[in-house]
Design brief:
Layout lengths: L13 E5 L6 E6 L5 E6 L3 E6 L7 E6 L5 E7 L2 E6 L4 E5 L5 E5 L6 E6 L3 E6 L3 E6 L14 E6 L5 E7 L17 E6 L4 E5 L5 E5 L6 E6 L5 E6 L4 E5 L5 E5 L6 E6 L6 E5 L4 E5 L4 E6 L6 E7 L2 E6 L4 E5 L5 E5 L6 E7 L2 E6 L4 E5 L18 E2 L17 H4 L18 H11 L33
Length: 463
């Protein structure tokens, strides 16, 4: 346990420093009752933590992956982890036993969504997949039957994903998946796509961005898609028709993350330009700029009337979401803040400095809606992780890749280039007679010694 002081002279904001992980803490997920927090790390392990106890306790360690963990999710007493070793693992919370290994992706896992019946995953191998959550009936040697759909068509890695379930559909016909269910994917190929979960076919292609799709969200009804891009812009789309609705400009560098407030009136975005911004998405107007970060703002998280930002400068900042006034800073991390969760009057943060820290939010807790209503039908991958910033790669065209340079040589992870796109594209470029129609996936040659912040790529649009 550690103590820390904020720059607003309020002592003891830092309640605990937990250094159990050996390397960067990349992602987090909360159980539905918020009593358990799971962290995924660069050290290839996930850890389960108590959140309601006076002191945070590590309840178990999930070991088995051979490379870093990019995504974690929880469903009841099951933990799901996705790794750069190209596999997804299902774990029992009680015993910490690995119950099943999902194999089928050929490159690192980027995002996970878990429902009562299915796991949806996106990967650097250019595909997304749907898997059975219940694997008890799968016999040895038949593990591949756990994958029920492969969504193939993107030309480069797939990153953010959103699942839009069909409402009030009767499964009495024995269907394994609702015919109306839709999956949305965003890719470094500059496009987003919608897919039929029933057939696996592509429904619409959302074209218009000139950089990779780094983050996505939807309105409460699941009819409008919002995309943030490495081209510095945000766009809204009609999901049914694929037509663009609005273009939103204001950020001067790559957009890394987005979120909405509780009633989805305002949208908030984070960027490499060091600012967060709020928008009225229905009309496409920018409302406010949230300033103060000295490096990239890698994620935004809105809780009640407070907007939290995690930054490459190692600080968490809490703003009044409507006025933009800075309410609180949480300094202390020695690396980029990668993920954040809020439980009552506690803020849990994970960082590239290999620690998870617990902070006191009592002075602003009256403005945090602790008991919020269930989320709307669309389900976003990795809701409270660094999400679409850490391990988010904008894979450049060949000419652009030759000009990309590392804009930040500091210890934290903003504006850092992922060189994997170069390394994985070159064999394809050199292969004579290769037909693009074959759509061969890029092979994962992930550098396991690289931390996830080394995966953030800066779009050099001006080059």
């Amino acid at each position: 346990m550690g103590n820390g002081n904020s720059n607003n002279s309020k002592a003891s904001l830092l309640k605990e420093t937990l250094g159990d992980h050996d390397e960067s803490v990349n992602c987090m997920a909360l159980s539905d009752d918020m009593s358990m927090l799971v962290t995924g790390s660069e050290d290839a392990t996930a850890r389960m933590w108590s959140t309601h106890t006076p002191e945070t306790e590590c309840l178990g360690v999930l070991r088995g992956h051979s490379s870093y963990i990019n995504a974690v999710a929880i469903m009841d007493t099951i933990v799901i982890t996705g790794s750069a070793d190209s596999t997804i693992r299902k774990w029992c919370m009680t015993t910490c036993e690995c119950l099943f290994v999902y194999e089928g992706h050929s490159a690192r896992i980027q995002r996970l969504i878990v429902t009562e019946d299915f796991i949806f995953s996106s990967s650097y191998d250019r595909t997304a997949k749907a898997w059975r959550l219940d694997t008890e009936g799968i016999r040895e040697g038949m593990e591949e039957t756990a994958c029920i759909r492969t969504f193939k068509g993107h030309a480069r890695g797939v990153y953010p994903i959103i699942f839009i379930p069909t409402e009030d559909f009767d499964l009495t016909d024995g269907a394994t998946i609702n015919p109306g269910d839709t999956l949305l994917t965003g890719s470094a190929d500059h496009t987003a796509r919608s897919w039929s979960c029933d057939t696996g076919g592509c429904l619409k292609i959302f074209k218009g961005h000139t950089g990779g799709i780094t983050c996505m969200s939807t309105d409460a009804s699941g009819k409008i898609l919002y995309t943030g891009s490495a081209d510095n812009s945000i766009r809204s789309w009609n999901i049914a028709t694929g037509q663009i609705i609005k273009k939103m400009f204001g950020h001067t560098k790559m957009v890394l993350d987005m979120c909405f407030d509780h009633d989805k009136t305002y949208m908030y975005t984070a960027s490499v330009d060091g600012n967060a911004r709020s928008w009225m998405p229905e009309i496409g107007d920018e409302v406010r700029v949230f300033e103060g970060a000295t490096r990239s703002v890698v994620f935004v998280h809105c809780k009640g009337n407070i907007l939290f930002t995690g930054c490459g400068d190692g600080e968490i900042r809490a703003y009044d979401a409507k006025s933009g006034a800075l309410r609180r800073t949480y300094p202390g991390h020695e690396g980029a803040v990668n993920c954040l969760a809020i439980v009552g009057d506690k803020v849990f943060s994970g960082s590239s400095d290999a620690t998870m820290r617990v902070w006191d939010a009592k002075d602003i807790s009256e403005e945090l809606l602790v008991d919020e209503a269930p989320p709307p039908p669309p389900v976003l991958g990795d809701d409270i992780t660094l999400g679409d910033s850490v391990s988010m790669i904008n894979e450049q065209d060949e000419a652009m890749e030759e000009h990309i340079e590392n804009l930040d040589d500091g210890p934290v992870g903003d504006e850092v280039i992922d060189e994997e796109a170069d390394a994985q594209d070159k064999p394809e470029e050199e292969a004579e007679g290769k037909n693009e129609a074959d759509d061969q996936p890029e092979q994962a040659e992930d550098k396991e010694e690289d931390s996830p912040e080394d995966m953030i790529e800066q779009e050099m649009a001006s080059v």
